[in-house]
Design a protein that fits this description.
Shape: globular
Structural class: mainly beta
Distance between the termini: 16 Å
Number of strands: 24
Helix content: under 10%
Radius of gyration: 25 Å
Number of helices: 5
Strand content: over 45%
Order of helices and strands: HEEEEEEEEEHEEEHHEEEEEEEEEEEHE
Length: about 500
């Protein structure tokens, strides 16, 4: 954790404690992870590409502090009004453990909101600020598939009783989505959680809608440039095609964009059950989302800059995710297990030409076993199996010389393929010794781990690396063929 991060966190904490409401309580929570993983195979310190293979040894450095201050302290066993301030600072860099070396630029104030309860309506909590709400976690993947209002700042009302929770919210998602190219994205939605048998069965259903309009003259709105083709866009040759067709002297007559609107939505579902026999708890999550389209692209051809809009090329993208995680006590006080699975389907109705992250299927399963020789010394074993399939042709390179499988070592000009296989199959295994000062439990923290990890993939060098990828690099450097990736890790993880 960088010194600057601590200074900022301390400053924020100091601000809360100097508030006028001195009678209120305050607390600080957080999460940190850091690892030493010398990668002797040319990698970047992660076993594989992403969390589809399980989060363990596939995630890097991370730090988070969450501060809460009771502006108006709640009174126990009453329905008195109360209010609290919440601030979260988080980011993905720790000094000496990653390429950014704990830079403050890697951190952000990700959440700030005020909660106030029992104002106007009993048992209702009002929240003004950032509004993220989720049903639970896929712990082995570090994912939250059933989430609403992730991008939204606004106002929500949350009613809660022993058997029912109801959340309704309204706000704007434009700044999180577009940053400096901000355009208003009004967002409305909600989430319902029912607990027919508290502690044994929960059911949830929620969703959100996003409606984005384009005001006249707003360059950050949605538009489509007419008379350009999808293939020229993905190849970056829109300007070249225009000049070849009409001549460079007509570049000033490049077509003007036509105004568009955009509509996105998301639906989420959740079923949780447990507390029977060896089953501690099972979480099943579901989400389906129609993603808002992209905006503009800028190309430079022979010194002339062409800017064009691509709404109609990106407005039919839908993503489905299903995740399940089951926690089991196989042998009380001796052996625990967590079994998880994740399935994703990305569909792009505009694209039948080229491989893309918006046109693929991915699925995996992860099993973690943790044995307890003693209260605080544990043995961990984890294995995962994953398959990723491209819907539009070959995108994964299986061999060191796969670059020659494409025309002249470049993406195929007809299919725009970038590899020689349409699928990536990956297996990972991890194991080692865990010290848990707070005792037994797969999710007991803090956790100090000494691990060995191994991965096998049909893709060559299937991990973050700096090996050759282009024909000119192939001519200058030796090609490397390796489908196995081995790594040792000394790491710690804590939340509080």
């Amino acid at each position: 954790m960088s010194a600057r991060f601590l200074v900022v966190a301390a400053a924020l904490s100091g601000l809360t404690f100097t508030s006028e409401a001195q009678a209120g309580g305050a607390d600080v929570g957080g999460y940190f992870r850091v690892a030493a993983r010398p990668d002797l195979q040319g990698g970047n310190g992660r076993l594989g590409y992403w969390n589809l293979y399980g989060r363990l040894m596939n995630e890097g450095s991370y730090g988070m502090l969450e501060l809460r201050y009771d502006i108006l302290e709640p009174q126990p066993a009453t329905q008195s009004e109360w209010a609290s301030l919440h601030v979260r600072v988080e980011g993905g860099s720790i000094a000496n453990a990653d390429a950014f070396n704990g830079s403050l630029n890697s951190f952000r104030m990700s959440q700030v909101f005020v909660k106030s309860g029992n104002v106007l309506i009993p048992n209702v909590t009002w929240q003004l600020g950032t509004l993220e709400y989720f049903y639970g976690d896929l712990g082995l993947y570090d994912m939250r598939p059933a989430t609403v209002f992730f991008e939204t700042v606004g106002l929500s009302a949350h009613y809660q009783s022993e058997r029912i929770e109801l959340l309704l919210g309204l706000g704007d998602s434009g700044f999180r989505r577009y940053g400096l190219q901000y355009n208003a994205v009004p967002t409305a939605g909600g989430a319902l959680r029912l607990k027919p048998v508290p502690g044994h069965l929960e059911v949830g259903l929620g969703g959100e809608v996003k409606l984005e309009t384009s005001a006249n003259g707003n360059v950050n709105g949605h538009y489509q440039t007419p008379d350009i083709t999808y293939e020229d866009w993905v190849r970056g040759e829109v300007g070249e095609s225009f000049v070849q067709q009409f001549g460079p002297e007509l570049s000033d007559y490049f077509p003007d964009p036509e105004r568009r609107g955009a509509f996105g939505w998301k639906g989420v579902g959740y079923v949780g059950f447990g507390g029977a026999g060896p089953l501690v708890w099972n979480n099943l999550f579901f989400s389906v989302e129609r993603v808002l389209p992209e905006k503009s692209v800028t190309e430079n051809y022979n010194g002339t800059e062409f800017t064009y809009w691509v709404h109609d090329f990106t407005d039919e993208r839908t993503v489905v995710n299903i995740g399940n995680e089951m926690q089991l006590k196989l042998v009380p006080h001796r052996l625990d297990a967590v079994l998880a699975g994740w399935y994703g389907l990305a569909m792009d109705g505009d694209n039948d030409l080229t491989p893309s992250d918006w046109d693929r299927t991915y699925a995996s399963t992860v099993l973690r076993l943790q044995a307890y020789p003693s209260e605080r010394v544990h043995l961990l074993v984890e294995t995962s199996l994953a398959r990723e399939v491209s819907h539009n042709g070959r995108t994964y390179r299986e061999h060191a010389d796969s670059i020659f499988a494409n025309t002249d070592g470049r993406p195929d000009t007809r299919g725009l393929e970038t590899g020689d296989s349409d699928s990536r199959n990956t297996w990972q295994g991890k194991g080692g010794i865990v010290l848990n000062p707070l005792g037994r439990g797969i999710y007991s923290r803090p956790s100090l781990r000494a691990l060995y990890g191994v991965q096998h993939s049909n893709q060559n060098n299937a991990f973050g690396n700096s090996f050759v990828e282009t024909l000119d690099q192939y001519n200058d450097f030796e090609a490397v063929e390796q489908h196995w990736h081995h790594m040792l890790s000394l790491e710690t993880e804590v939340w509080f």
